[in-house]
Amino acid sequence: MLEAFKPFSCDCSSWASGMMYGRITFYRGRGQWQTFSRGEVFNKRLHDDPAFRQALAFYDISISDFLDKRHWHNGNSAAGLRAGDCMITQLPARCWARYALDFKKRFGTRIFLAIHDNQVPWMSAAYDFLHAKGITAC
User: How do the domains of the chain map onto residue ranges?
Assistant: First the structure.
């Protein structure tokens, strides 16, 4: 049905839930998602799973940044991190950009990610990151 109608889809805040609520929606590829909070990362020891580490490595996020609590707060100036330099910004942006490209490639459907003006550079950097890895919608 999606292939026949090629509708648009819109999401306005899921990609930014890490920054707003401390929950990351993590795209593993091929339509597979995983959602977790920082507490769940440690309680469930997600970082010990080799498949999770491999999925995280795809996004070029170091395990040390992923586990560092400073990176779970966007723009942690006290820790010397600017907005957009934190893992909590980069990882979800890269995940959602990858999902949007994947979805368009698989179904011909464009996902519209509604973002605020100050978030444009983060999403632009996410798309640039993916294009540098050879990930496109074509």
Answer: 2-132
